[in-house]
Every structure is written in C-alpha cells, then in structure tokens.
Fold this protein.
Amino acid sequence: MQHSSALACHSALDIKKKFTIKPALNEHTQRYSYAHKIVERPNQVSSKQPPVTAIASSRPESKTVLKNGSSAVDLGASSHVSSLDNGTLLCVQQSAPQHLDVAKQKQSALEFGAFRSDFDLRAEQARNATMQTPQELQEKLFSVAAKEWLEEEETYHPDKPKTLKSYGDYVKRLEVLFTMRLNEIHIGHIKEYQREMKKKYHPRSVNNDIGVLSRVLRKAELWEPIRPLYRPLPVPKWTPPRVLTEKEEQHLFEVAALNHSYSLAYWVASLTNNTTASGSELRGLKIKNIDMESIPPIMYVPSDKVKNEYRARVIPLNERGVKQMERILERSRECGSVLPEHYVFPLRTRSGKHPVYDPTKPASESFLRKQWDKMRKEAGFPWLRPHDMRHQIITKLLENGVPEQTVMSIAGHVSREMLEHYSHQRVDAKFRALDLINPDKKKPVATAKGKGVKNAG
C-alpha cells in the first residue's frame, strides 16, 4: 500500500518526467498496434520504492489513469496505466485526438504501417533501379527494363501526358515480339520487327517504336553496336491535307445549322474552324480557361492538354468564335459545369433521354462520333474528320498571306512542310527569284547606232 500511495501522489507531469518510452509489443493489445514500454529512469528510482515498469499501447477507449491496486493517477486524456499480476503497470492509450473518431484512429494506425512498409519497399526498388550498373540492366527482360524506363519518364515529365501515353503504346507493341533479355537483342530482331509491323502500322509509327527501344538499349549501353546497322523505314512524302473549298465549307455549315440533332458537332466544327483548337485541346478546356469578359474574349489552351509544349497558347475569339463559345458554355452549365475547375465538355456517365455528366472529368475521345458521322454524311463529305477543320483554318490563314509567325502563334505548331506548301509569301518570293533568270523573258532592246541590231542576250 505504501508503494500504491507513493504512486497516487504523482502528478501527470511527474509521470512524464519519471518514465522513458521504448518500443515493446503488448500482448494484451497487439490486435490494435505495437505498444511502448515505459521504463523508470534509474537515476530517479527511490531506494524505498521498487522500479516501476509500464507498457503503453494505442488502444483507444475512454479515460486515462495510472492504476496500481486501489490507487490511481490521472495522466490526462491520452493514456491509461493498469497493474498486471507481476507488478508491472499497463499503460493503455484511451482516447483519440479530438479531430479523429475511434474508428479513424485505428484505421489510420493500420494504414500508416502499411503505407510505411510499402514506401520503404518502393524506395528500395527505386534505389536499385537508379544505382544498377549497365551490366545488371542488360540481364533484365525487355518488358522489365522498359517498365523502369517508363516510370522514370513519368517522374520527370509529368507535364507531357500525351507523349507519355504514346510511349506506353510503343512499349506495348514492342513487348509482343521483344520477349527476351536486353543483351539478347540484335539487329536481326529489329529488322524482323520492321517487316512484321509495317503490314499493320504506318512507317512513322514503327520508327517511333524502334526509337523507344533504342532509348532502353542505350541506357544499358547496348545500342551503339546496333546503331550503324539500323535504318528507319522510309516515310511517305508529305502531301497537303485535304480541305474544303470555300463553297464546300459554306455548304457544310449551312446543312449543320439546320439540324439540331448534331448541334454540338456543328458548334465544335465551327469553333475549330475559327480558332485552330483541335478536339483533344477542346476536351481539355476548363471553365477557367475561357474569359468572355476580356476584349476581345480569349480562350487559353493549357499546356497539360496539348500534343507538345508549343501548342499551349492564348487564342482571341472572333465574332463567330464568340457566338459558338457562348452556345457551348450554355450547354456546359446545363451539364453541371459551373465551377472554374469544371470541364467545358464534361464526361457523360449515363446516356439516354436524361443523360448524366461528371463535370470533374473531360469528355471521352469519342464524344462527338455519332453526331459528326450524321453531319458529314448529310453534307456529302464522308471523309471529313474533326481534325480536318484545324487544317482548314491553317490553310486559309496561309493562303491569305498571314505571316508565318502569326499563324504559329494562333495554331501553336505547324509543320515546316505545310508552311512551305501554303505560304503565298514564300511562293511569291521564289517566283520573283526564278523570274529574274528566266531566259525567255523579254529584255530591253539595245539598238546599235545606225545599224538597228537587237541584243539577243
């Protein structure tokens, strides 16, 4: 009882000063978590009192006291210490923090342990992948090495989602035939891959596949012996994209404006034809990217929704662009897109007479397919694709003599081939240069004095 009385007189502050906490497994509460062993500090042990040991766990219940026999000391709202048969004190965590209920506390403790274990495992894997030698990498299967390469690209290039998606597609195609280790790959495999895949894919796609393969092999120091022997597939020469004539364009929009069953396809086609924004760029637009109050109204194409870094841009809206954007924004509000972070073209999660939309996600790649098919067939242009409207406006800009840099700032990126083909400024300059040396062009007649002889040059 003397020992119990001594314990009873300790305040919460005394208990905190008197004991240290060490990890220990509490058999009584192991279903909740690991406990802590509280050991009395030797320099504070009284000669009249035996050392006192307690075990603390995170078992959440109601109240906090330090018990020994019939005596008890209140330690506050966080721990409860009770006596065991051997005189050891059991300190049990009683109440959760005020901002957490009991269920969340138990779950978070378990989840933290799982997260910590998973974090350590992934950290070890990252270290091994980073510090591995080329010789170690050479022994890996292509699928494993390619996965590591992709993960590294995703880590350091999160601002290029479309590029990363393309890399993933290339790797998937490569994995079908490249099932061996990296050090087993030779030029014969690459040539056979080219022969097989060119039957199904465009030569440029096959070349892109080999480009990714070369980057994986280069990391393992295996590409240099292959590089002198590799020849990419020849790519067909660039041809101008097919576009509508002025009369055909007018006919398309006249037909589209009269049929409300494909109004959305009409608005999108017209908006692209007045802004150069492609389908993927429009799908990535959020309400915050549109400013109808500015003069002129503008549309900002965000960098994380474009094919490459040059396509991020600010596009002013002309009169027709403003009209179509107003219609599109009205539809957006009807679909529930009312906040700045909501998408202008939200994802449809349920179709039918009463469709449901999720404004926090962008529309699918096929959100225009049915309406577009109806519109182009009725207008008599079954070959027309949504992306062709981007070609349409770029062609019109270049043919009307708009400077190349202005076209680039509006469209974001235009191929050099297209600029060369359509820029009348460049064509006129070439014509004038060649016309200067035209041998058939009539030149000033020089008459010899008194003889009338012509200078044939």
Remarks:
- The longest helix spans residues 102-131.
- The first strand starts at residue 19 and ends at 24.
- The chain has three domains: 2-93, 132-229, 246-421.
